[in-house]
Amino acid sequence: MADVEHEIAVIVAGVARVEPTRVGRDVHLRELGLGSLDIVEIIFHIEDRLQIKIPYNANETGRVADAAFRTIGDVVDAISALVAERDAAAQPTS
After folding, report:
1. Angle between helices 2-16 and 36-50 in degrees, nearest 10
2. Which residues contact 11 (CB under 8 A, 6 or more apart)?
3. CA atoms within 13 A on the CB side of 53
4. 42 Cβ contact partners less than 8 Å away, ≥ 6 residues apart
5. Which residues pair with residue 71 across a beta bridge?
């Protein structure tokens, strides 16, 4: 999970134009000045970097920005679960 957390911190910091050290688990995305378009950009970067698909519908107003992804920790936890699912699916079955 540390790798996922680091990748997310780097991505969020880049979009927010802040130092990655400011991107701690308890930091709210709004505190970094991120709006809904920034959240969409972050989602695209995470999907590309971690080779996952994040279920997100931009037409569902505020669903991700205001509910599931309030803090960096929320993002890390959700993305870590998706990465674990991806990795489990890639394991050969016996």
Report:
1. 140
2. 42, 45, 46, 49
3. 2
4. 11, 12, 15, 34, 75
5. 28
The answer to pTM > 0.85 is: no
CA distances from 6 to 15, 65, 89 (A): 14, 20, 23
Between CA 35 and CA 61 the distance in angstroms is 12
Task: List, in order, residues 6 or more apart from 90 with CB less than 8 Å away.
Answer: none
pLDDT tens for residues 68-94?
788 999 999 999 999 999 999 888 876
Q: In what helix (H) or strand (E) does residue 6 lie, and over which residues does it extend?
A: helix 2-16
To which residue do tokens 């991700």 refer?
Answer: 64
